[in-house]
Specification:
This protein has six helices and two strands. By secondary structure, it is an alpha+beta fold. The chain has a two-stranded antiparallel ribbon.
Length: about 150
């Protein structure tokens, strides 16, 4: 998977800092998933947010100017290699879409009509649900419904 050049620097600094994405998101006033997407080059920070992030990660010269620019530049979203992921966790999401993608599409369109779920007016959260049989991962996607327009 080809990552933006600044991502490795930011993730290394995060690892060294001991801060979580939730910690960093709290400092930026953003959700942890959005914050992770920022470090992965899939979101855009304001100049103030970029400064706060670099301070939290204790990033100084000479990397600072390039990282400030990278964090505040509009990304090419979804620019990861378009291949089947090999990482087991990522592959499970791919597998979920392979198995449940068309059923989800049909259920959404049955309930809302012909359209899509926005990935722009959108939020995604991850939560841990404790269970005696093994903790559960709860992923919630919340997107505005956008009907297809007829003209």
């Amino acid at each position: 998977m080809a990552l933006p050049p600044h991502t490795t620097t930011l993730l290394d600094a995060k690892r060294c800092s001991g801060l979580s994405f939730a910690d960093l998101g709290g400092r930026l006033g953003q959700d942890e998933v959005w914050t992770a997407s920022l470090l992965y080059g899939q979101a855009t920070a304001s100049a103030d947010q970029a400064q706060l992030l670099l301070e939290a990660l204790q990033i100084t010269e000479p990397e600072r100017p390039a990282l400030l620019a990278a964090l505040t530049t509009y990304p090419v979203k979804g620019a990861l290699d378009p291949v089947i992921p090999t990482d087991p966790l990522l592959y499970r999401f791919y597998e979920i879409l392979q198995i449940y993608g068309l059923p989800l599409k049909d259920v959404i369109q049955e309930q809302f009509g012909d359209g899509i779920m926005s990935a722009i007016d959108f939020s995604l959260t991850v939560a841990k649900q404790e269970d005696p049989k093994g903790d559960r991962v709860v992923v919630t996607m919340n997107g505005k419904f956008l009907p297809y327009r007829k003209w």
